[in-house]
Amino acid sequence: MEDPRTRILFPSWECAALLARAEAAAGPGSELDRAWTEGDVDLLLRVRRAGGSVVAGADAPLDFVGISIHQNPRALVRHGFTPVEVLRTATTNAAEALGAGTLGVIRPGARADLLVVDGDPLRDVAAARVEQVLVDGHHHTVRELLAPYAGLPREPAPATAPEARPVAGCCRSRPATPR
What pLDDT, in 10s, does the model give residues 109-121? Predict the structure, then answer.
């Protein structure tokens, strides 16, 4: 929730649900969540050990859908991936999975959208705070990209917000349980 992208781009009730989930994570009702996370981690580690590629995506299993592409790298490192392996999940591994060898690399003839980060993600992926992006030759700052949304009024949570439910990973499903 410290990331302004989360506060600006997510509805207020989603932010409240994320905060409640984080606070409950250390509580007694979170054993099932921990078991699911351990299962997801085990799956990713087995894929890696077997020589498979782990690919970053908005549906990555270790964090909230949508923002996971930004937060999942930290979780992967906490569970045994190196920072280099994590960066490859969003670059070369992703390009290979899409059959797009000219993506995910910086070399002559390749197509590259670039991120400018504050920090050294090869030492600490949490230091990979995106500050600027170059997309199709156009430069943008994160502040500039968030600006159109920052001034929008925050809507209150609906009177009957839908119940948050666990999300299935790509390779297996999880039972929906009440929170």
Answer: 777 788 888 889 8
d(CA 112, CA 109): 9
pLDDT, tens digit, for every residue of 74-125?
888 888 889 999 888 888 888 888 888 777 778 887 777 888 888 898 988 8
Q: In degrees, to the nearest 5, what angle opens at C-alpha 138 toward C-alphas 115 and 151? A: 80
Task: Return the SS3 of 164.
Answer: coil
Is there a domain that residue 25 lies in?
yes
Q: Is the dihedral of CA 130, 60, 88, 80 positive or negative?
A: positive
Apex 152 CA angle, 149 and 157, nearest 5: 110
For residue 126, give the DSSP letter.
Answer: G
CA distance 90 to 96: 10
Q: Which residue range is the domain that position 12 belongs to?
A: 4-150
pLDDT per residue as tens digits for the range 4-53: 777 777 777 777 777 777 676 655 556 656 666 777 888 888 998 999 88
Task: Please report whether residue 59 resides in a domain.
Answer: yes
Q: Comparing 54 with 176, which gets the higher pLDDT?
A: 54
Closest to 152 (Cα-Cα) out of 12, 18, 17, 31: 12
Say how far apart CA 101 and CA 86 lie, in whole Å.
18
Domain membership of residue 17 (yes or no) is yes
- CB neighbour list of residue 77: distance below 8 Å, 6 or more residues apart: 83, 86, 125, 126
